Amino acid sequence: MALSASKLKVGDTHEEVVIDDLTRTQLVMYAGASGDYNPLHTDDLYTKEVAGYPGVFAHGMLSMGLTGKMLTNYVGDGRLKKYGVRFTSQVWPGDTLTAKATVADIREEGGEKVVDLTLETVNQDGKTVITGTATARIDA
Amino acid sequence: MADEIKFPVEATHIMMFARSVGDPNPIYYDEEYAKKTEVGHILAPPTFPRAVAQFDPDYHLRVKPGEKWFGSGKNPTGLTEPAKSSGGLHAEQHFEYHRQPKPGDVYTVTTKPGKTWEKESKRAGKLVFSETIQEYRDQNGELVVTSRSVGVKTERPVEQS
What we know:
- The structure holds two protein chains of two kinds.
- Chain A is of the alpha+beta class.
- Chain A has three helices and five strands; from the N terminus they run E-H-H-H-E-E-E-E.
- Chain A has a five-stranded antiparallel beta sheet with strand order 1-3-4-5-2, covered by helices on one side.
- Chain B is mainly β.
- Chain B is 9% helix and 35% strand.
- Chain B has helices spanning 11-20, 31-35, and strands at residues 4-8, 88-97, 106-121, 125-137, 143-154.
- Chain B has a five-stranded antiparallel beta sheet, with no helix packed on it.
- Chain B is globular and about 55 Å long.
- The two termini of chain B are 33 Å apart.
- Chains A and B meet through helix 1, helix 2, helix 3 and strand 2 of A and helix 1 and strand 2 of B.
- Strand 2 of chain A pairs antiparallel with strand 2 of chain B.
């Protein structure tokens, strides 16, 4: 299931729809599991009337977690060495997100083969919500 | 975040966390399946380390008995004078995995501040960024995960384009 250096080339891509029609309940699940109970993500009344947003929106870490699903499906379980993102736009209930990894480099690090990936997650309007990079161990 | 937090990693928490990020991969909950994989055991999804918030006794984004909460109850906010700022948002998050987190690990998580900087933005006014570095060390003192996060405080709510 792991990637192998001999079969990969720079520019290869892998993409997945990681959430289709994001629900408010999913935000509640993320709050409960992560321990981040910021009302911006679960409390529409507070978010509209006090914080001044159109309504609750996803934790950045939920978008990163959803993007991480695509990443581990691609590189295999237990293979990640690094995973980092920037949150470029908010994610809202109803959004459908597609996450994509592109091979940027295949190289050696500490005596093992690794792949460097660039990451981008977009919503249903093609707007980028996450950009990032990852490095994973791969087979020879 | 408290300066030093004890974070025990439990299989049930990993299962709940995996569900919360919409990931049905059985390696996050099925021990029999996990044993047959290359990894050989249940492991935690890549962003799980941030669930350390559950174990921070002082965490400011959790309702605590007897304390006012800034979210809604009878009124849109429980505070009499809500903060004018829209509060902090998460701008960046970077993990480095020295090995994969798994059930049975007990981390001591140390938190220290990193750099801070400012930027002017059209959509949200003045932005103040601040970096936090966290190190997750297991019960043997080995470094398992390093986390660098960047938070941003906006002058006003981010305008929607």
